[in-house]
Amino acid sequence: MLDSYSPVPSANGWQLTTDRLLLHQLTIADAPFMLALLNSPPWLRFIGDRNVYTLEAAEQYIQHGAMRSYEQYGFGTYRVSLRETGDAIGTCGLHRRTGLPDVDLGFAFLPGFNGKGYGFESASAVLSYAANELNLSRLTAFCDPDNRASVALIEKLGFVYEKRIQYGQKESLLYGKCIG
């Protein structure tokens, strides 16, 4: 499913290519897409309101989140685009979060792009990248207990339920997986 790695600097940073998708680092140019994603009903329900309501706020969100993570850790969340059209459909990536001992896998997709295998395809690419390029040995993933689609995807990826955690204002289910 993962065709190639291109983890070298380019106009869009590095890129992962799968059968149907391209994953690359977010840039300020992705602000309109991120504004839509951050205010989509599934994001608001299962992840939470990030108080990002303008393009300027979306730019700041990308700068202080994903771009800072790329600089600090060498990884972050990545834009997921359809390979055929280049249209952004979601995000998938790795996060170093305060209060959690391991790097975690996170993903979110715009409405209309769920249930088509894009989450599994992009997450599988990120897992391979984490193991083979970043040499990570363990990842976690967590989600809202009511988000049945995310629970199913996390389990399909081979993560095993560990415990309930409180992260921010939400109670979440924490899963873990050895990858290296």
UniProtKB/TrEMBL annotation:
Organism: Spirosoma rhododendri
Isomerase recorded as keyword: no
Keywords for the protein's UniProt record, in alphabetical order: Transferase
Domain N-acetyltransferase: 21-180
UniProt cross-references to Gene3D superfamilies, sorted A to Z: 3.40.630.30
SUPFAM superfamilies: Acyl-CoA N-acyltransferases (Nat)
Short name of one Pfam family: Acetyltransf_3
GO molecular function, a single term: acyltransferase activity, transferring groups other than amino-acyl groups
Protein name: GNAT family N-acetyltransferase
PROSITE patterns: GNAT
Protein's UniProt keywords contain Transmembrane helix: no
